[in-house]
Amino acid sequence: MPDALLLVLLMAAVAIGWWLGRRERQGSRDHAPSNTLSRDYFVGLNYLLNEQPDRAIETFVSALEVNSETIDTHITLGNLFRTRGEADRAVKIHQNLLARPTLTVLQSEQVQLELARDFLHLGLFDRSERLLQQLVNDASHDDFRHSAKRLLADLFDREGEWQAAFDVAYPSLIRRHEDIRRAAAHWLCEMADQERRSASPGLARKHLRRALSIDPRCVRANLLLAALAQDTGHYRDAIRILMRIPDQDLDMMPVALEPLHHAFAMLNDEAGLVDCLERLLERAHVTSLIILLAETQRKRHGLQVAIELVSEQLNRSPSLGALDYLLDLYQHQQQEQGAPDDRLQLLKQHTHTLLTARPRHRCQRCGFAGQPLHWQCPSCRSWGTTRPITGIEGE
């Protein structure tokens, strides 16, 4: 049995035992002992000790009456079901609690919050939203209102209702929570992307500037601003915007390289691109940057210049990607000389296989890794936590 589950069940067993003992003492004073309930409790405890958590939970729930002294225990058991992936059973417990007329206002709000979590876990967003909206509007306790806002923003996020999520989070959640601040900037980027596709660049820019005012480190906002500039042929403006990204987050520099290359190409300014890339290389030793610079120099000055550049960078810092590209250069050089070497082809096959198999990006929160850059992690659903992998096999 998992340690966390065992701990929760032991705590529940202690709480139930305390309550049953108190009830039995009260019953003895009133000459009405509660032998059945005591027997149920010990049966449940036996299941627990024999590592049969499902039967233990069912026995504890049936043994424990709902009253003001046992509300917290029932809530804990309901939450235990939800964390075990049995949110439908959690719903039954929390709905049963909510129907009790003896609940205080605070207890009722706590149960509504947990029931909303159950519905959210089950994908019943409309039911969860109704409960959360009621708590946001009417909760008597600030903690419950705050928790309801967080859940409601998460619900709208899951539904792709970016404006609604932002409206719920602004300004209180954004001010208090860094993860909500990052998420809000990305919600604005999502709205800007929609406006860009619908040919409303003015609204898109408005959203992106607001995203940067909320989270100045939002690389995505500057990428989209640069894309808007390129859409209208303002390539110098796009370059200027893209060059802000290394100042925002040096590790995210690789995402700016392709649009930078495109902007300089549209200006027919290879010299300007080389100068820009060399300045960036002084700030960070990035594999994709080395390859782009070498490829540009190769077109301008030939294979040998590119080979020397990559070799020099590999001497500074090892990189599987740069080595793979260097092998490409050597193969092209040998083909030009009419003397291909099969050993180089074998090495190239191995480096290519290793590069194809490795992920390029990893979420800093949950560790999910993959080839594409996800602005929202597919695993933990966090915004802005996925970054390029660095090191010998990465950037």
List the helices and strands and how they pair.
Elements: H1 3-29, H2 35-49, H3 53-63, H4 71-83, H5 87-98, H6 105-122, H7 125-138, H8 142-159, H9 162-169, H10 172-176, H11 178-197, H12 201-214, H13 219-231, H14 235-242, H15 245-248, H16 254-266, H17 270-283, H18 287-301, H19 303-316, H20 320-337, H21 342-357, E1 361-363, E2 369-370, E3 386-388
Antiparallel strand pairs: 1-2, 1-3
Helix pairs in contact: 1-2, 1-3, 1-4, 2-3, 4-5, 4-6, 5-6, 6-7, 6-8, 7-8, 8-9, 9-11, 11-12, 11-13, 12-13, 13-14, 13-16, 14-16, 17-18, 18-19, 19-20, 20-21
Tell me what portion of residues adopts beta-strand conformation.
under 5%
Major sheet description: 3 strands, antiparallel
- Alpha-carbon Rg, integer: 30 Å
**Total number of strands:** 3
- Strand order within the widest sheet? 2-1-3
Mean pLDDT: 86
* Fraction of residues in helix: over 70%
User: What is the subunit organization of this protein?
Assistant: single chain
Order of helices and strands: HHHHHHHHHHHHHHHHHHHHHEEE
Membrane topology: Single-pass membrane protein
Cytoplasmic side: 22-395
Family: Belongs to the LapB family.
Protein name: Lipopolysaccharide assembly protein B
Would you kindly provide a written description of the structure presented here, covering whatever features stand out?
- By secondary structure, this protein is mainly α.
- It is built from 21 helices and three strands.
- The protein has helices spanning 3-29, 35-49, 53-63, 71-83, 87-98, 105-122, 125-138, 142-159, 162-169, 172-176, 178-197, 201-214, 219-231, 235-242, 245-248, 254-266, 270-283, 287-301, 303-316, 320-337, 342-357, and strands at residues 361-363, 369-370, 386-388.
- The protein has a three-stranded antiparallel beta sheet, with no helix packed on it.
- α11 (178-197) runs antiparallel to α12 (201-214) and α18 (287-301) runs antiparallel to α19 (303-316).
- The chain is elongated.
- The two termini are 41 Å apart.
- The model is unreliable at 28-38 (pLDDT under 50).
- Its main location: membrane.
- It is a single-pass membrane protein.
- InterPro entries: CellSynth/LPSAsmb/PSIAsmb, LapB, Rubredoxin_2, TPR-like_helical_dom_sf.
- Fe cation binds at residues 363, 366, 377, 380.
- Residues 361-386 form the LapB rubredoxin metal binding domain.
